[in-house]
Design goal:
With about 270 residues, the protein is an alpha/beta fold. The chain has 10 helices and 7 strands. It has a 7-stranded mixed sheet, sandwiched between helices.
Length: about 270
């Protein structure tokens, strides 16, 4: 169990977060990176998910016409303390107090793009036995998918605690219908940053993000589709057990409960005639 963000970011923590020069610099760097990945060529309406005190929103508002701006943004956050600071800072975006794990309350196709910095990993937390992280992730990504126009894009920077959370988040995005991929900046270092890049089908890239990020600064595209295809073929050659183990692994990554494997897994059963 862990403290939910609306309680963690109380008045004191919200002030510390907003006034820290280190956090401001890191937030600005990640926001600029997310904008680069969004590739917005004209002024756009952007949803800022987990907008906090408006640090990212200020950058969205400051984008010049030469870089495709300025953008209009609407921010949504679960912390009343964070939004109170944003109001006192007189940010330009409109602000909404709400839990994105419950709903994203906008008409379908309202936004050209969405951005989220250091927020969606909170949806993986279970503060009590009544909280279902998979359900919260599903509601969030389904709501986001509906809220974006056809061809719209979203970039979510996040900090998963482990590979299970990383898989939970990416799987929920794909199930909602997004073309999705994860980019990692500075892999293997303490400054590593993960970005979930999403696109709604119907755009020029046909739901495949690979062409969006190919040849970008600092991006190494690793297309796993061929690797999985080869693995599946080898699995078929190896026999029934390999396919069963692969299927069980896929189900575990999706959070499903599967039977424990044994030496009998995948063995042919002897048929006994009576």
């Amino acid at each position: 169990m862990s403290t939910p963000p609306d309680l963690f970011y109380n008045d004191s923590e919200s002030r510390k977060y907003t006034t820290s020069s280190r956090i401001q610099n890191v937030q600005a760097e990640m926001t600029h990176r997310a904008l680069e990945l969004l590739q917005l060529g004209s002024p756009s309406l952007i949803l800022d998910i987990g907008c906090g005190s408006g640090l990212s929103g200020e950058i969205l508002s400051a984008v010049t016409s030469a870089d495709g701006g300025p953008h209009i943004w609407i921010g949504m956050d679960i912390s009343a303390s964070m939004l109170d600071i944003a109001l006192r800072r007189e940010v330009e975006g409109d602000l909404i107090l709400g839990d994105v794990g419950d709903d994203i309350p906008f008409r379908p196709g309202s936004f050209d793009a969405a951005i989220s910095i250091s927020a969606i990993q909170w949806l993986c937390n279970a503060e009590s036995s009544e909280v279902n992280p998979q359900g919260r992730l599903s509601r969030f990504f389904n709501g986001l998918y509906a809220g974006l126009r056809r061809g719209g894009r979203a970039v979510c920077q996040f900090y998963p605690k482990n590979e299970v959370q990383r898989s939970m988040i990416s799987s929920a995005a794909v199930k909602a219908g997004f073309g999705a991929g994860i980019l990692e900046d500075n892999p293997g270092t303490k400054n590593a940053k993960l970005y979930l890049v999403l696109i709604v089908g119907g755009g020029a890239v046909q739901g495949d993000i690979t062409s969006m990020v190919m040849n970008m600064r600092g991006v190494d595209v690793q297309d796993a589709r061929r690797r999985y295809s080869v693995a599946e073929t080898k699995g078929k050659r190896r026999g029934n057990k390999a396919r069963i183990m692969q299927k069980k692994d896929q189900m575990q990554r999706r959070g499903k409960v599967v039977k424990e494997s044994s030496k009998y897994t995948g063995r042919s059963r002897r048929r006994v005639a009576f």
